[in-house]
What we know:
Oligomer: single chain
Largest sheet: none
Structural class: mainly alpha
Protein name: Tetraspanin
Keywords: Membrane, Transmembrane, Transmembrane helix
Family: Belongs to the tetraspanin (TM4SF) family.
Membrane topology: Multi-pass membrane protein
Subcellular location: Membrane
Amino acid sequence: MSQLYRGDQYDWVAVCLKYLLFIFNFLFWVGGAAVMAVGIWTLIDKSDYLSLLASSTFAVSAYILIFAGGLVMITGFLGCCAVIREQRSCLSAYFSCLLLIFLIELVAGVLAYVYYQRLSEELKQHLNHTMTENYAQPGKNHITHAVDRLQQDFKCCGSNHSSDWQYSVYISSQEAGDRVVPDSCCKTIALQCGQRDHPSNIYKVEGGCITKLEQFLADHLLIIGAVGIGVACLQLAGAALTACFIYLLYKEEEEEFSDM
C-alpha cells in the first residue's frame, strides 16, 4: 500500500514539475528573444557611435548577448522536447546548456560592468583626440559621419565645449572655409553655417558631447545588465526544476528496477 501511495505521489510531483518546466521554457524562450533584441538594438540603434570608442568592449558585450539570446531560444525549444520525452540523458544535456548560457551571460555582465567603470575616463582621453584629429580627414569618412550624427542627435558641439574645435585639423585647414565649427554643430544645418559660433546658431551644452555620449552608453549598459540578470535568475530557477525532475526520474527508474 505504501509503495502504491509513493508511486502515486511521484506521479503527481512529476506532472507538476513537467508543467512547471513547460511554463519555464516558454518564459525562457521569451527571455532569449528579449536578450537578443537588446543586443541587436544596442548595435543598430547607435552603431555609428561605436567607431568613436577606443575599445570594442561595448560592442563585444552586445555580440555576446545576441549569441546568448539565440542559444537561449534554441535551448528553450530543446528543453520542451526533453521534458516530453522524459529521458534523463536529454534533460542532463539541457541542464548543461542552461549552465553554459548562464556562464556566457555572466561574462557579458562582467564585461559591461568593467566597461561601465572606465567609460568616463576612456571618453575623456579618446573622444577629443578622435574628433579634432580625424574629423573630415582622408579615409576617415566613418568618423566624420559618426561625429556629425553625434552632434545632431545629442544637440552638442565639441567633445567638452564648442571651443575644442579651434584645435581641429579640419578647422585649421582651407577646406573649412572660415568655419569655426563643423556645420553639424548648427541648430539648423545649412551650408557653411558653422562660420558663426554664437549660441543662437550652434549648440552650446555644458559638458559637451562627452557628457551626452557617456550618459547614453551608461543607460545602454544598465539595460544590458538588467536584462542579463533577469534571464540569469530565470535560468537558475529552470536549472533547479530540471535537476529535481532528473532526480525524480532517477528515483522512478530505481524503484522500477528494484520491483523487477
